[in-house]
Task: structure prediction
Amino acid sequence: MVSLADHLFSKKATEQDTKVNAPKFMPPEELRVALPEPSIQLDQDSEWCLVEKPEGWQEIRFHDYGEIYDIPGLYEKLFYEILQCDSPAQVCQLLAEHLRGQDATPSSLRVLDLGAGNGIVGQELKHVGASTIVGVDIVEQARKAALRDRPGVYTDYLIEDMTDLPEPARRRLESFRFNCLTCVAALGFGDIPTEAFVRAYELVEPGGFVAFNIKRDFLDGGDLSGFAELMRAMIDENILEVSCTKAYPHRLATSGDPIEYVAIVGTKRAEVPAAMLSS
Ligand SMILES: C[S@@+](CC[C@H](N)C(=O)[O-])C[C@H]1O[C@@H](n2cnc3c(N)ncnc32)[C@H](O)[C@@H]1O
Result:
């Protein structure tokens, strides 16, 4: 069986070679972080670090996002300064290139940023020129950190579970008439479930842009969440038209090995049928 990676890369997709610069961050000088010994091989969803606090060193799992966002500068120091994360810049640059190729005006973008975290993707989208950027995340600390560290980036920022969106929140999101969806470093590993991605996709107008990334292994059959299967069906049925992809190192693991991801940019052509989500 052909893996989704081969499928994607053979299907109209072009590998881009863009030089991107990571956004500038200023973690507080005094913030001290220690990583496990590089010889310890940890799965991506069980990685952890030690952070020095006034009461002593505290272990924090990378997936305890709320705890990380609560400490100003920790997310930036850990993922960007030490582990050299490049995903927000890579995905947003690929989106920007695609817009240029389409003669689309970045300022016309009304973006739903799913799994927005502390706003680094929002900051990149602002840099691209998007006029409206609305964040959704499931943890309250994400919105607090985005407003604290990147005020003025998000037009609105909702804390919601996209799989169980209350009616007032749905109406609020619908009122933005999104023509772009971004979802960066948030799919898989117990983060955003497939259904949440589909619910966000439903909020984007047909013809809207979709920009996201996923671990390369997931496209090669290593995904148990059903996301790769859904993606394959969406592409085959021309529900999502993939225009460009780019494989790149998302960040280093605590072992020092690069974690390979693929950025994907395409256009929404149709809604996802209910049967496709449940199959
Ligand atoms: C690795 S962070 C990425 C944040 C941001 N996109 C970035 O690239 O910096 C993943 C984010 O997804 C959020 N998340 C996880 N599950 C979610 C869900 N079901 N709905 C919305 N956000 C979710 C987490 O709270 C976290 O903020």
In short: Residues 11-24 have pLDDT under 50 and may be disordered. Residues 118 and 147 are 8 Å apart (CA to CA). Residues 65, 87-88, 115-117, 120-121, 136-139, 142, 161-162, 184-186, 191-193, 196 surround S-adenosylmethionine (CB under 6 Å).
